[in-house]
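Obj: model holo form, ligand = zinc ion.
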Amino acid sequence: MQQNSKKRETPVKYNLTEKDIKKICSIYHISELEIKKLNDFGLLNTELLKHEVIRQDYKNIKLAVKDRPEFSEESVLLALKREHHIQSTAEVRNIVNDSTNKNMIFCKHCGTRISLKLAKTTGGYCNDCMSEQIKL
Ligand SMILES: [Zn+2]
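Output (holo structure tokens):
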């Protein structure tokens, strides 16, 4: 028998790994200790957080492979599927595309997700990166 710490009755769809927790800390700028405490108490929306981590991973991978056409979209989704123990790449795709904006565009410089409209205006950069070009 596996030693499972069943602190709460509510089923948790996702278990956050140490790696996930570290990523959540950097996404939300919350200390690891606090996240861990909340997680131990079962107070976190693990599904939402897991999805955020997956979206963040996707963003980072896409940025890392943007000049590497040998890495197909499918291979990126497979990597995420494996890493996060998701059943299918279709599910990963749904998580990643879970946005009102179907056109997933990422800033060429920092990787932040931006709208298609903004990308067209700025040539693919987010407002933050654009603002850095304004010298005062
Ligand atoms: Zn940017």
